[in-house]
Write a structure and sequence with these properties.
Layout (H helix, E strand, L loop, with lengths): L1 H9 L1 H19 L6 H25 L7 H29 L7
Helix pairs in contact: 3-4
């Protein structure tokens, strides 16, 4: 428990910035109108594509014989980036389906 408190006090500024960015992100995303959803989703997919490329580079340069931090971070970047891109395409496809005319 003492190590956790020491870690918290050592990185309290970083933890505060992360918590503040979470609250700010939730507030910004909750106020986005539906008209802007598709352009913002395509921008998020582009950013996630860059994250996937960075994860591939990180995994490619890491030592595969041992379980290192860069290997774990690279794999996590690949998994979460891919999930974000696929989820973005699924949500965008569902949004675009709403605007198509239905067959009678």
């Amino acid at each position: 428990m003492e190590q956790v408190l020491t870690l918290f006090f050592e990185y309290k500024e970083s933890i505060f910035i992360i918590a503040l960015s979470i609250f700010l992100g939730v507030e910004v995303i909750s106020n986005v109108p539906a008209v802007l959803h598709t352009p913002l989703m395509s921008g998020a997919n582009a950013i996630s594509g860059v994250i996937i490329i960075g994860g591939i580079i990180l995994v490619g340069h890491s030592d595969l014989s041992t379980l290192s931090v860069d290997l774990v971070l690279g794999i996590l970047a690949l998994v979460f980036g891919t999930l974000n891109v696929v989820g973005g395409f699924v949500v965008t496809d569902r949004m675009l389906e709403m605007f198509k005319k239905r067959k009678k």
